[in-house]
Amino acid sequence: MFTRQxxxxxxxxxxxxxxxxxxxxxxxxxxxxxxxYKEPFKNPMGYRLASAxxxxxxxxxxxxxxxxxxxxxxxxxxxxxNGSQSNYFVINGGTSGGTILTLPAMVEMVKMSGIHPECIVxxxxxxxxxxxTSKVHDHGYTDFLHLMSSLNLSxxxxxxxxxxxxxxxxxxxNTIWPYLLPARRLNQxxxxxxxxxxxxxxxxxxxxxxxxxxxxxxLLPSPEFIYYDNTRFSSEKLKSYEDRYLEEGMFEPTNxxxxxxxxxxxxxxxxxxxxxxQLIIVEMPEATFSRENFSIHAKTKMEDxxxxxxxxxxxxxxxxxxxxxxxxxxxxxxxxxxxxxSQDMVQVLNKNLVxxxxxxxxxHD
Length: 365
What we know:
Elements: H1 4-29, H2 46-58, E1 63-68, H3 70-75, H4 78-83, E2 89-92, H5 103-113, E3 119-124, H6 161-176, H7 180-201, H8 235-247, H9 259-273, E4 278-283, H10 288-293, H11 299-307, E5 313-317, H12 335-353
Parallel strand pairs: 1-2, 1-3, 3-4, 4-5
C-alpha cells in the first residue's frame, strides 16, 4: 500500500512529466520546426521536403510547390522555371518513395507546416499504385510524424509487417518523447556550425568535415539532382533492372490499384486540395516500357479517381510526352529533357494560374 507521501510525489512527478511532454509536443507541432531544415544536407529524402517547406514559409511571393517522388525531384529544374517568369516562386519538394504509401506522410508534413501555396503540383504515375515496400521510415518521413497529428494511420495497412512495425514504433516514439527530433537536428546544426567556426579562425590548419559527422555524409551539402547519368535508355540498360522488377512483383497486374490504394489516393487528393488555392495533378513522363508493363495496370482506375475531383483539381497527362531516347531509365529524364519539360511546365502553370489580365486561371490542358 502506497504511503500518502509516495502518492503525492508520484502525482507531482506525473504532473511535471505531463507539463514537459505538452511543451515538447507544442514544439514538435509548431510550424516553425521546419525552419531547422532549410539546409537539407545529405539526410534522408524526407528532409528535402522539409527544406522545401521551409523555403515556402519564407517566400513573400506566390508559391508553387512541386510534390512527389523521384520523378518530380529529378524532373524539374526550378532555376529554369523561376528564371522564365516572375508571377510565382517554384519550389521543388520532390523526394523519394516510389509508391503511393509515401503520399500521406508528405501531405501531413505540408499540413503541419501551416503553408498554403498558391498551387501544389502533385506529380505521380499509375505504377505508384503498386503493392510493394515504400520505405516511408527509411526515407525519413516518420521523423516528422506523431500520433497527435491528423495523420490517418490506415496507410500502414499497405506495408509489409516489418516495415509497418518500424514505421509505427518510430511515430509512437516521437509522440512519447517529442524532444527527440529537434534535439537531434540542433545537435547536427551545432556540429556544422562548429566546423565552420573552426575553419574560419583556423584556416591555416582547417579541420575535415568528416571529424564532425556521426553518420556518413550527414553534413555534406545535398545536390539538387541525384541522378547525373546521361546515358540514354536502352534495351541493354533495361536488362540490369529486370531482375529487380520481377522480384518486386512489378509485372503482376493484380499487384496494382487495389481498393486500398485507390481509397488512399482519393483521401490524400481531398486533403491536399484543401492545402492550396489550386491543386494540379500531373501524370509524369515515363518511357514506353513503364507505360506498357506497369502503369497500364492502374492507369484507368487512377484517372477515374482523379477525375472524380473534376472542377476542384486540374489533371494533366504527360505520361507519353517524350520518346524513349529522352530518358535515362524507365521514368527519369535526361538533363536536356528535364530542361525542356521545365519550360513546358511554366507554360502549363501560366495557362492555369495566371491569365493575361492577372486574374486566376483554371483552364485545363
